[in-house]
Each structure stands twice: as C-alpha cells, then as structure tokens.
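Section 5.1 Outputs to date
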Amino acid sequence: MTQFSLGEFRPVTDHVYVAVAEPASVNIGLVVGPSGCLVVDTGSSPEQGAALRAAAEAFAGVPVVAVLATHWHFDHAFGLAGFAGVPTYAHETVPSWLAHPGAREVAESLGVPFDALAAPTRTFSLARVIDLGGPRVELVHFGRGHTDGDVVAIVPDAGVIFTGDLLESAGPPAFGSDCHLKEWPSAVDGILGLVAEDTILVPGHGAPMDRLAAFQQRAEISGLYGQVEYLIGRGVKQEDAYAEGEWPFDETTVREVLPLAYAELAAAGIVPRRQLPLA
C-alpha cells in the first residue's frame, strides 16, 4: 500500500522553504510573502494536497494564494484538488495529460480515485507572474524536456529557482516515455541563462544544486542524445548500442532510455543504415 507523508518545511533562503513529500521524495516549494504564499507542486493525491495546504498555511501564517504544478506527473500534480478555491497554475498541456489513460493507470496504482483528480484552474503557454505582496515569483516555460509542459518558478529577490524535474540531484534525470530528449538541454539552457554564482536551484527531487551541477547535468543529457545519434550514424542497432557507446549515466538508466532515444530519432528520419562491406 502506498504511504503518503509530508516532511517539515526547511529554509532554502529568507522566505523560501522546501519540504519533502512521499511517495517519490518530491520537493514541495513554499514562497512566503506578507499577504500570502505560493506552493510549488502539490503531492500525489487530493488528500495529500489538502494536508500540504494546511501545513503551508500553519507554517507561513498567511493563506495559500497560488499554486504551481511544475508538470503533470503524479507526485507534482495529483494534489491539485486539495487546493479548491485557490488559483492553481500549470502549463497549457497539463489538463489533457491529467485526463489521459496513463494518468488513470498511475492513479489506480496509488489507490487514488481517478475522478477525484483536478486540473489546474489557470493555464498558460509561456509565462505568468505571481505577486505575494512583496516577493514576486515568475513562472516560465522554457520549452519541452522532461515533459512537454515543464514550468520553473523563479524567485528573483531570493536567488532561488524551482526547476521541477528538468534537473535532479537525487539520481539521474527521469527519462519517461513523454520526455523530449533533443530539446531537454535547451530547456535547461533557459534556466542557466538566469543563474548567477550564488543562485540556488531546487530540483524536483534531491538536495539543492548550484550552477556547476546544473551545467554538468545539462551536458550529460545532451551527451546521451548525441551519443545515440552518433551510434545510429555508424549503423549501430538499438540492441547493440549500450555495448558500443560511452555513456554519462549508469547502465540501468541508459538501457531504459535507449528505446526512447532511438524512437525519437527514428521519428526524425534518423535510423541505423546497413553498412556495406569494404571491397
């Protein structure tokens, strides 16, 4: 049976906090202003979302006035229904994903009633700004990557960026069937363009990251895609790719992502060609 829990909010910087929710050890962000607070990501069920709302308001001493789901995956968006009456924000692609049969399958595996899930009430394509009565939070979609609807939350006055699962420090990035490998590094570039030496990056899972760690992960994602493209150009088939390549991630991660990478490149017309023997 799935265990749902929420840890304590701990400071990232002044008026910015993070708590860890289970399952999936997802980072839940909290940005506190004089008149209200913003919650970044909502947990894995409507009940957990409601508990998160209560915990955030008790901790901050002000009401939750806005919520962001950084993308549609269960640990980030299935708690949206727990914030009834509060404006909830996400990328415009998120509602269709939450109505997708894949979301139903995940909900059932968690013991969460599919018809209890809620879509965000306010969607956007590129950017929104949330005013918390002083602190300003910028919500930005830099492009497709971990999903087609990744949104980051930038807190300029605190030097903090919540990156969702575009970046991870608890382990390798999560390469699901809905990711966009070729475009992912460009989405991270959008984040890196805002990063100063002292900026704190709060990933979707794991401890805060600095500029160097983010640059390294961006290079690894790009390197993985580039290596697959190189192998295909040499005529290497998917089943032989792991043995033939040089990889930035562990074997399990690479073997899971290879079918996705080969399929993405095949959709672009890039497939292994049979190598003719030399005369």
